[in-house]
Design goal:
about 270 residues, alpha/beta, binds S-adenosylmethionine
Length: about 270
């Protein structure tokens, strides 16, 4: 448990993940029936980018601080929420901001300090439960939800070398418990080989209807660097592929990227 998201809050990877997350939650709201969201690795929910530790790494300078005044239409839903919420919002705060009165959110966080902060943040909101619980165990314990429709965000810290295999196993478990759920799993792209290995496991798992949205800062040739990241989505809502690509294109332009190989791609991993 060395990973602290506060060092990385608002970086390009957060912007990519959160812009797509906002789109996915909005897509769930196309139907009036309430949704359930599970945020398996929730973090602390909000981050002060002017304070330590974010100000020490300055990662947000290459991320949200470059984007804040961008007016590109595909980024408007995400950026307007960030502007409205003040402190940089983590995934559970973005979901909270989009919830309707009957929607529910469960958050899991294993770090003792972070779960305490998260509980304080959401104490006034009875529609949100915060669990001091292991994410992988929660995929068994908290699924399927009573609401029968919803989103599971899996956003591991990728501290351990076997985290891609753990993530693939978690997706198989979660999907076996909640087959109609939309699952969104974040992964880092340092080199292509690890991602191929992960996608091969998913491809042979029997899970259907899977796409990836990937965003690269540069060609992933140096495995010591975070060269990009991806979001694997199971049961993507209607129009996800087109709209995700528009979001990634706007992100590339808004961040002013120009290195060879930079930008977004959306690809189908398994058919319906
Ligand atoms: C990448 S951060 C989450 C960021 C958050 N989803 C967001 O977008 O704002 C990963 C979080 O998972 C927590 N964590 C690590 N291992 C965990 C586990 N097995 N179960 C639950 N939480 C875990 C870490 O303490 C960290 O806060």
């Amino acid at each position: 448990m060395n990973y602290r998201h506060a060092f990385h809050a608002g970086n390009f990877a957060d912007c990519m993940k959160h812009a797509l997350l906002v789109w996915l939650v909005e897509a769930l709201k196309r139907k009036p029936a309430p949704f359930f969201a599970l945020d398996t690795h929730a973090g602390v929910g909000q981050y002060d980018l002017d304070a330590l530790p974010a100000s020490r790494t300055q990662e947000a300078r290459e991320g949200i601080l470059r984007l804040l005044h961008c007016q590109a239409e595909p980024l408007v839903p995400y950026l307007s929420l960030v502007r409205r919420l003040g402190l940089y919002p983590g995934s559970p705060s973005l979901i909270e901001a989009l919830m309707r009165p009957d929607d529910r959110l469960a958050c899991c966080e294993l770090h003792n300090d972070d779960v305490r902060d998260l509980r304080l943040l959401f104490a006034p909101n009875a529609a949100i439960s915060v669990h001091h619980r292991d994410a992988w165990e929660a995929l068994r314990g908290l699924l399927p939800p009573r609401q029968k429709r919803g989103l599971v965000l899996i956003d591991p810290p990728f501290e351990e070398p076997e985290e891609f295999a753990t993530l693939a196993a978690g997706l198989q478990l979660g999907h076996s418990r909640f087959r109609t759920g939309v699952f969104a799993a974040w992964y880092p792209i340092k080199q292509r080989a690890r991602v191929r290995y992960f996608l091969d496991i998913v491809r042979t798992s029997g899970i259907r209807d899977v796409v990836t949205a990937e965003f690269l800062l540069r060609e992933p040739l140096d495995p010591s660097r975070l060269n990009g990241c991806g979001l694997l989505v199971i049961n993507p809502p209607f129009r996800f592929e087109d709209e995700a690509l528009a979001i990634l294109d706007a992100l590339r332009d808004g961040l002013g990227l120009d290195e060879p190989g930079c930008g977004g791609t959306v690809a189908r991993v398994c058919d319906e």
